[in-house]
Design a protein that fits this description.
- It is a single chain.
- The protein is 46% helix and 15% strand.
- It is α/β, with parallel strands linked by helices.
- A 6-stranded mixed beta sheet has the order 3-4-14-9-10-13, with helices on both faces.
- The radius of gyration is 21 Å and the shape is globular.
- The protein starts with a strand and ends with a helix.
- The structure holds pyridoxal-5'-phosphate (PLP).
- Pyridoxal-5'-phosphate binds next to α12.
Length: 498
């Protein structure tokens, strides 16, 4: 059973939480009780595939889905024609105490695929279970990775339409190409003449427009979200923490029950929160290392207990972490206050009204017990990519590099040499220009096409260009619409033939 973080009394099943995306009081759905796994149970998963591990772990989290339903969802999401590695999320050891968990083997080469391949399956199944005949309209505002991963996941899924808005000049060339060439009968992709905040605010306004919702409802449409506020995006991410641990134990490097740390490049706090859930569910986790770029609002919060979003916004070399409001922190606060929804609602209201809030020392003590946080700038990010390439011949993307360096800083600051798993959230080929700059020490010559850069990075490193990116060159552009932020609602109406 799932409840709102802000106190609405009614509980819902996981299927209902996934359809709704968000609670009616503006809160996020959280599980009442987390399932617990004993070590002996985990031992039974040691020699199982990623899919089998997912079946067992999700089976306990999404208990209203039958075994057969989950099996079907998982097989469709993590099949070999979607993921180019048989392990789905392989763990690559770098030295005795460091391993990288590669979460980017899915169709769009970013870790968002781990959840956004499964969410559409879970949602379509939830609709069948609930006899809900409305067509679901997924609205997405994206700064790059989420939009493409959602389009790819929802492409041609029955009873669902997806409309993605991206800032016309706010995404990388590769990211834009990935979106405008998207195939599928149920997809729309629209450039917004503005920045990401304009696109995001536009989507939020549509969600809050009661008159428009009523009109949609008369035509049998319902809006929903593929953002990481949806429980159906968070739950699949818990699986890979377990899976990574099992894989490291399997190599003999880690003993059963031995703790490991996880270092996570963090934006909206979804990925690292899944790690907290894994720990609460019985996985032997030491510290969760929250790594940020110059948008270091979470670093300050974890150090000081004061969340202050009123600060300059920086565009960095790790753009998927350029975020000042980390929505999923709300869920952590719910759990750390033992479900004190009045407190959580108060903080969230304060954040909305004043741009900041401050938590108690009791909450801070629990944060310190579980988390470490630090940030690095773009120059340090490039230096990390270069150093890791030279020492390990391993190619980090800029997001993963942030986590790598912050994990190293943690080790030297604390003296804690617990084995650490670095979550790798994107293929380096998604950020060719930055990675080439870091490795060669020179900015790539201007005017080179993205495809030339892909080729250059592959030649230099001997790494293989992911299929989804290599194929972009031969795809047709299907989506050339754009609109002003104030006309986004009109565009939605047009796409749906209202
Ligand atoms: C989305 C994203 C992140 C941040 O993940 P959160 O769950 O939002 O904290 C980090 N790296 C990459 C490449 C991403 O796409």
């Amino acid at each position: 059973m799932y409840f709102s973080t802000r106190g609405a009394k009614n509980s819902v099943s996981s299927a209902q939480a996934i359809i709704a995306g968000m609670a009616t009081d503006g809160g996020l759905f959280v599980p009442k009780d987390l399932p617990k796994f004993e070590l002996t149970e985990l031992k039974g998963l040691l020699n199982k595939s990623y899919q089998k591990r997912a079946q067992v772990i999700l089976g306990r989290l999404l208990a209203d889905y039958s075994e057969a339903e989950l099996h079907q969802c998982i097989e469709a999401a993590y099949s070999s024609n979607k993921f180019d590695h048989s392990a789905v999320a392989p763990l690559v050891e770098q030295d005795e105490t460091t391993a990288v968990l590669e979460l980017w083997h899915g169709p769009t080469s970013a870790f968002k695929d781990m959840a956004l391949q499964l969410l559409p399956q879970l949602l379509a199944t939830a609709l069948r279970k609930s006899d809900d005949t409305d067509e679901i309209v997924i609205l997405v505002a994206t700064s790059g990775d989420t939009g493409k991963a959602a389009l790819e996941g929802f492409q041609d899924v029955d009873q669902i339409k997806i409309i993605t808005f991206y800032p016309e000049h706010g995404v990388s060339a590769i990211q834009k190409l990935q979106m405008v060439t998207q195939e599928g009968q149920n997809v729309a992709v629209i450039a917004v003449k503005g920045n990401f905040d304009d696109a995001q605010s536009g989507v939020k306004e549509i969600f809050q427009d009661k008159g428009f919702q009523a009109e949609l409802s008369r035509k049998a449409f319902q809006l929903s979200s593929a953002n990481s506020i949806n429980w159906g995006r968070l739950a699949p991410q818990i699986v890979y923490y377990f899976s990574a641990y099992l894989d490291w134990v399997k190599t003999g490097r880690i003993g059963w029950g031995q703790k490991v740390n996880f270092a996570v490049p963090t934006g909206n706090f979804g990925d690292i929160l899944a790690g907290y859930y894994a720990k609460e569910m019985g996985l032997p986790v030491g510290k969760l290392i929250c790594a940020s770029n110059a948008n270091n609002v979470l670093t300050d919060f974890i150090h000081e207990g004061r969340y202050d979003a009123k600060r300059p916004f920086y565009q960095t070399a790790s753009p998927s972490m350029d975020i000042l409001i980390s929505s999923n922190l709300e869920r952590l606060l719910y759990h750390l206050t033992q479900g004190d929804t009045a407190l959580v609602k108060g903080w969230m209201d304060e954040l909305k009204e004043t741009g900041s809030y401050e938590v108690s020392s009791a909450v801070m003590a629990k944060i310190e017990q579980n988390f470490y946080a630090a940030w690095i700038n773009d120059e340090q990010t490039r230096a990390t990519i270069q150093a890791v390439y030279q020492q390990h011949h391993y190619v980090l993307d800029p997001h993963t590099a942030v986590a790598w360096q912050v994990a190293a800083d943690y080790r030297s600051a604390s003296g804690d040499d617990t084995p650490c798993i670095i979550l790798s959230t994107a293929s380096p080929f998604k950020f060719n220009a930055s990675v080439l700059h870091a490795i060669t020490g020179q900015l790539p010559a201007t005017g080179q096409s993205e495809f030339a850069l892909l080729g250059e990075l592959a030649r230099l490193t001997g790494w293989k260009i992911p299929k989804g990116l290599a194929e972009l060159k031969d795809k047709s552009v299907y989506h050339e619409q754009s609109c002003l932020p104030k006309n986004m609602k009109q565009k939605v109406a047009q796409v749906l033939n209202l």
